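User: quick one
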Amino acid sequence: MKLEANHIYFKYGGSAEWLLEDISLDIRAGEVVGLIGTSGRGKSTLGKILAGQIGGYKGDVLLGGKPVPKGIYSPVQLIYQHPELAVNPRWKLGKTLAEAGEYDDGLRRELGVKTHFLDRYPNELSGGELQRICVMRALRPETRFLIADEISTMLDVITQSQIWHVVLDYAKQYGIGILAITHNEHLAGAICTRKVFMQ
Amino acid sequence: MNRRQKTLIYASFSAFLLIAVMAAGSFLTEEATRVDFARKNLLPSLGHIYGTDWFGRDMFIRTVKGLSLSIVIGALSTIGSGLIALMMGTAAAIGGRRVDACVNWLIDVVMGVPMLIFLILVSFIVGKGPQGIIVGMILTHWTYLARVVRAEVLQLKSSQYVIAARSMGKSNAYIALRHILPHAYPQFLVGLILMFPHTILHEASLTFLGFGLSPHQPGIGVILSESLNYLSAGQWWTALMPGLSLLVIVRLFDLLGDSIQSLYNPYKSHE
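Assistant: Done. Structure below.
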């Protein structure tokens, strides 16, 4: 299976110039593609377009030759840079995790999500702890592709490597394709099978 | 005792006091404010803690009655403008760019006209008395809250956890009920409670100016404007005591609103 973006053109409302102009990209199952570029080049925007979170672009995004399905648990999942924004501040994290459906307890242990985290509110956990939960809810049997938008930028080196370790293992096991959006070429060098530059 | 419990106590105390004033006012009969020239113009004392007026009526009882009428009028107009605000705000947030522009224009128009002048106009058209004040207040006080609702829904709609829920295949109804409503309704409730003192003060000032309640109704504005005539004769208590009481009631509503806000704020409520 392949996730592909064909000749994408996109600009935000009110802007005169194209942010993304004729961008094409594909990710095959099991591949880890690093998307590297400086700030403001539209990396995150491209990620959101691939995950079906922004409309109003020209060109098409295809999953296995067909449009990405909507209204079900999306096979293309996006993990954000700031986990504290990606969880409902009013919900205990157990509820946030349950929103995605039943979870695999082995994966929970591997990611270092302790059971007492689930009984806490987001403002009682650190960014790293929250990110583990956000990663966990995106790693599901339905997931075919993962867009990781700077998911480890704000984490310390040890947590960074722990999380990536689990994600890469899981992806290998289930044949998930990953698009890793990052500034960090060293990180990309360590985890990616292929690099794409947006300059 | 933690901050949450203290806030809860504040909130229930002010709620209790407000309900007590309202209930007391509606139980008092005409008999309680009987004219009795044998005890006119008395200074505040233990028997009459707010003193008596030039007809010998007890000022404390008059004040409670006036405040209770103010609270009822305030409640009706707050609920009315709250409903308008809810509809306008939600429509602006989810109805697309045209509807948004329309609603914003309307808000600007209503906010652009000085509120007292708008109120005077409406109460002229609808007729004096409580209904004029209530209609006027409903038509003018929704704007601020509509902006709050609009901003809140817009922000939630584009928040990452709502987008994440969407990519988990959740329906619009699920998102509205589980994510947006629980966040938006405390803001709305607080907005409503904080609108209350506004409406009470506007009712009092409108009546004071002579456009609101008619002189035989026991409004706090009526009391204040009458008392002003006697102020120069040295009867300070007939204006001061009801005025202070109005201030206390308004502050109580403020306190209630603020405490509920801090109880519901997602970033503070777990402290």
